[in-house]
Structures are given as structure tokens and as C-alpha cells.
Amino acid sequence: MRIIRNASTLIIIPVIVLSFLSCKNERHLPQEALAQYINGKLSYENGNLNKAYQEFIDLSNKHTNFREAYLMAAKSAYFLGEYPEAEKILSKIWEKYPDYYDSGYWLGRALLIQEKNEEALDVFIILNKNNPNDFRVLQQLALISMEKEDLLASMDYCKQALLLRDEMAQIALTLAQIYYSQGLLDEAYNVLKENKGIATNDSTIYATFEDVMENISK
To answer: Which among 90, 97, 129, 156 counts the fewest CB atoms within 10 Å?
Structure first.
């Protein structure tokens, strides 16, 4: 499979394929479903959300157990501003697949943007119980609690999120390593430079940032 060697589209197609194949519910789908999924994902990544939405809705209608297609249809609807449609799709997925974490996260987002704060709070609390180390969920819980003027709870969620700084920094390091492996040294260096401050100063990950940046500069 061809890799487009451009910083903005680097390894998008292989990553899409791998993410597709890693979902056990989707492994049995035919090749044309994979091709349509890739087309929809590329449309989504390129900002053609209407086309992406149609691709994913069509795909989910053909393959009713293809939960990733439903999720991408909902995300497309969300970013098109069609929040009730996104909520409808996500509620359906989460009811059918209560262990599908990402559908719960986006359901919470869809509820929150419609100012259904109490419903969103219930969703994010469930997600936080299942995965207490998700920075995104902690952030949403902090914002909802602040909106409810429950400042102690909001502060607590913020403190929990800050404890995950080194994990967030690891993501940046991984991205830099991908750029580095493809010979994109400037992109790798910039990612490290922009995100080094996330890591705690006395951590191993911070020292790794400095070592890699020094090696790139040589």
C-alpha cells in the first residue's frame, strides 16, 4: 500500500487500515467494505464531512454490526453541527455496545454541546469509572462541574488530569518517532519542542525529549 510522504498525510492510509483490522467486530467484512471505509475516512480527514457522512451511513446500513462506521457517521454529523443526529446514532451504538468506549465519549460530547449537561455528566461519570486515566473525560467532567458551580469537584478532576501529563507527553514522543522514522526531522523536532513542556521536569520522558532533540540537532 502506497504511503503518501507528506507531513500532513503521513501514513494516514496504513493507519486507517490497521485501525479497521484491529476491531474484531469488523474483521469478517468484505474488501469493498474496507475500501468504502477508507474512502469515508479520507473524506473525513480532508474536511469533506458531507461526503464522509453519506459514505459511513451507507456503509452502516449495509453492515449493521459495523460499529466503527456508525461512530464515524456520528462524528461527521457532529462536526457538521447536526448534534441531534449525532446523539441519535451514538445512543444507538452505546446501547448496543455498552463496552464501546469511544461511542460513549462522543455521546457525552453531543449531549454537552446541546446543553444536556446532566445527561452528559451521567455518561462521563460511567466512562471515568471504566477508565479513570482518560484526560479527555476528566476535562469534560471538570468543565461540567464548573458549570454546575461545583468548584471542588472541578478542581479535583483538574488535578487528576494533571497527573496524566507524562502520558500526554508520551503521545507527542511517539508522533515524533514516526516522523523521525520517515526522515521528517524538522517535523519531529518541532513536535518535541512544542510539547516538551507538558512533561514533568524531573521525569524520564522529559529527559528523553531532550536527548532526542539533541540527536536531531546534530
So the answer is: 129
